[in-house]
Write a structure and sequence with these properties.
alpha/beta, 2 domains, seven-stranded mixed beta sheet
């Protein structure tokens, strides 16, 4: 009887330890201080649907994520982390895209043609805002109504 009780206590303790380890893994912040990423900055007018952790893609391949979102000079400014081995030319652009019609948002980097590359902490010169589906549908309806009156 007593050994069965000891076995239950051991199982309980092992369960608690496993739970703590899993919780720690889930809640742990990504290591962004290390030398494996570069940080870049982009300023937009609208960033609807973008949040910390949003994917950053180049040619459909995930190369990073959104680290931080701030408001600077009354405009949203996004700080992104990108794999350090990816070279981004200084004439590259960044845009906010949607995966499908109603899918999640992601940032897409279009690589430019210059041989001068952005350095850690530098800013994108070209950015394109998020398209809000409601605004787009409103414009389509307005065009349809105008064409109907012709």
């Amino acid at each position: 009887m007593e050994t069965e009780k000891k076995i239950r206590i051991k199982k309980f303790v092992y369960g608690i330890i496993a739970f703590i380890i899993l919780l720690n893994l889930v809640l742990a912040e990504k290591n962004t201080v290390g030398g494996d990423v570069n940080n870049y900055i982009a300023t937009f007018n609208k960033i609807d649907g973008v949040s910390v952790g949003t994917d950053v893609l180049i040619s459909g391949i995930k190369v990073g994520d959104v680290k931080e979102i701030l408001i600077k000079d009354n405009y949203p400014q996004i700080s992104i982390n990108v794999n350090k081995n990816i070279e981004i030319s200084d004439d590259s652009s960044i845009s906010i895209q949607t995966d499908g019609l109603f899918g999640k948002k992601f940032l897409l980097i279009e690589i430019g043609g210059n041989n001068i590359y952005l350095k850690n902490g530098e800013k994108f010169s070209f950015s394109e805002d998020s398209i809000v589906i409601e605004e787009l549908l409103g414009k389509i309806i307005l065009i349809g109504e105008k064409n109907k009156g012709l």
